[in-house]
Amino acid sequence: MMMEVAPTTDLVYQGICTLFHNTNPREKEKASKWLEEFQKSIYSWTIADELLQQKRDLHSCYFAAQTMRNKIQNSFNELPPSSHESLRDSLITHIGQITIDTDNIIVTQLCLALADLSLLMASWKQPILDLLDMLSPQPQSMWPLLEILTLIPEEMDSRYLRLGANRREEVHLQLEAAAPKVMEYLCMCMHVSETNQEKILNATLRCYSTWVAIHAIRLQQSAQNPLTQQVFKLLSMESTSRKLHDTATECMCALLSTSLDPQFKLQIFNCICMLEPAYHTSVGTEDIDKTMNYCRIFTVLCEAFFFEMLQSDDMPHYSIKGLDLVLICVGHFDYEVAEITFNLWYSLSEELFQRNNDTLTAHFKPHIERLLGALYRLAQMESDQEGLLDENDSFSDFRRKVSDLIKDVAFIVGSGACFKQMFLLLQSPGTTWESTESALFIMQNVAKNIIPDENEIIPKVVEAILNLTDKTHIAVRYTSIMLLGELCDWIENHPETLQAVLDFLLCSLQQKNGLAAAAAIALTSICSSCRQKMTCHIFGLVNIAGSLDSFEINNDLAIGLLKGISLILSRLPRNQLDTAMREIIRFQLEPLAELVKSGPVAVVCKGERTDPAYWVDRACAVIRHTNPDVSTDEMHPTLQILNEAWPLISQIMDKYQTDVRVMERTCRLIRYSVRMVRKQASLLVEPLINQMVCLYTLHHHSCFLYLGSVFVDEFAKVDECINGLLAMLKAFIEPTFKMLQVENGLKNNPDTVDDFFRLCSRFIDCCPLPFLQSALVTPIFQCALLACTLDHREANSSVMKFFCNLLKWGRSNNYRLSECKPLVAEIAQQNGEALVMNLVHASVFCLHSYMLPDVAEVLTELKAVVTSEQMESYLKTALDALPRKNSGGYVTATQLQLDEFCNTVMRATAPKSVTVALKTFTRLFR
């Protein structure tokens, strides 16, 4: 409820005191809500100004400054243009009263408020020069002025301000014009700071960095620029404080990210190379923060020269030496330093892979060999590590990143060569357990890419693994088992090793020391790769499936094993398949039947044996991955199991109907079952639909809508099923619309929007004419119009897909089911204007730019249904409804830009052109 009467300044101050000083939690919460409402009200402008003038205490000044900043960012439209100047003058007055003792957070909020005001206020033509004139003569204003000059370029792209491309261009021109004066002021501040304080120098360099980052300062002579020289000086000196070092690093990275001429690039490259001794000094003094800063600078240097490094495949570019600096950092003992460089190596490997040029790739081979050597050292565990690594600690996370990186870069040196390099390390005399484990870890990550007929090294590795004893460190055994799993393609090509490998893995699977998890992963991989050769082991595998809960593995790994076993089931003769599959499914359904019989629902403990989803997921894995070749006239083996299991599945849905997670898992089991047996499941459709509709009306689980779309996909081409499916849709509509039409209904239920419109799209795809002839299409289309503005990626995509699928049937060149054409044409005539209006509004004010290609598809489809005159009229109406000026008084879109957008859309022959036009156009309002 909005505040209707202006509160007094004293009342607001009392609320602030309660919020910050009262010990009663209820009173604090009450004060917080009241102050929140106050901040939204029109009265907060004046009272915040008064509180800043009165300076009663820190909290009231902070609250007032934060209110002012918040109002300017989010509610600037509340102020009439006539009051903009007085607001500006008031803020400048408050900032002019800042002293060196003023609290940082108050300074930041006030400076942010003035910076945002300067960007929003079109009538303020030279804010930078005006601020320099007014505040630079006052020594105490140096700090806040530097803060404002830093924030203005930073805030240009603020998503709160939505300045628009025209205003940003205007501001950028203002900044470029003011840049010489700003540089002059920054140099003066730098000289003052030499005799005064570090705080000013830090603020000066932060400001320089932001102006460089947005290309407002010309950098032709930047290396000779006093500020750039100061940055290098600070980075070269051991005595530089941590904070200044961080700022100098940011500044250097900003310089490197700008477009520089070749001469300056060479100068800056040479200057950065001279920082190598400073890096070594930081390592020697164990100043890890500075070490990480240098690593970042060297990495950004290589990123700045990225395409120069790759430009020639005969003579390497001088900048390739930058990789040597990066590799020095990768050699640091702290893995967090090396991690800074990972994105560079990813980019390099991706580019070399795309170019597929062996000569060029060879330039980088020595660097990648050094990288792999460093990763081998960094991935080593501590020598006093007794058990396995904790999967959730930061070192395990680092090793996962190393794993991904090795898989990406190994091709540059060759996976076989990398494998051999690590094998040779294993042969070295005096190898410790931790270095052995690390070598095996590297081998594990390249094993999949080794040629399966390799017969020199892998046989020795496999033999060594199979002969490991209980005395071997458990981490070495764990990684060895994981390596066996990655060698699954080699094992498939060497079937004589299979029996020994399976015996070894089964033994490991029964261990209670953590090895069972690795054995489960390895066995799953081998089952997937050696399907045909594993059929003779099916009875042992069925026994494993029945004993899963005796192994020390989590349910995800158990499901993985069931998946692997099911892939082998698919290769069995029919009689063996039926028996084995029925047995494995029985292992999952019997505990479910016990849960159903066990009386009222207790609290379901996720992931426990008393959780029905635990067993449903396992059954689902078997159904989903047992996919034998079955002729169309042959009964699918899953059908009989599904028919027998249906009463139990129905009971689960009834008993656990309030638990959305269990319902989602059960629907997924039904979905894969129906997908597997297809039309053979038609007898189950009616009872399933009846139960789904009943439960959806009560609980609105969107998974039922998704399952409905699967039924439409499978059965809508069967004429006798269509009326039942349309009845299902009709039954779904009332509870769905009821939920979506309340306030924020669409926003709060994106999954429902997603699944509902996916269901409607399936109808249009599978039985368009009955759907278009039904009375349901109009209310569904109206609901889709409302959902255009929903900024949820999947939900919005489903809405747009619905529009596209429907409009496709109205194309003038559509000769399939011509009866659909007039029905779609009528829908387009009735709703075309509203559709374009909503799409344009949503694109400009609601949707992310990555969602605009879907909007472009809809506009393109609509163009193919209505006449050019109608489409142009719809577009012009939608564009006329957009605001021509922002609350700050500047133009958002000129008539020329509006016409250009309209003409581009009308001329476009493909969605891609419309997407480009939409992205360019929406930037005018963002």
UniProtKB/TrEMBL annotation:
One of its GO terms (biological process) is protein import into nucleus. Transmembrane segments: none annotated. It is found in: Cytoplasm; Nucleus envelope. One of its GO terms (molecular function) is small GTPase binding. Its main location: cytoplasm. Interacts with (GTP-bound) Ran. Interacts with (phosphorylated) SFRS1 and SFRS2; leading to their nuclear import. Interacts with NUP62. Interacts with RBM4. Interacts with CPSF6, promoting its nuclear import. This is Transportin-3.
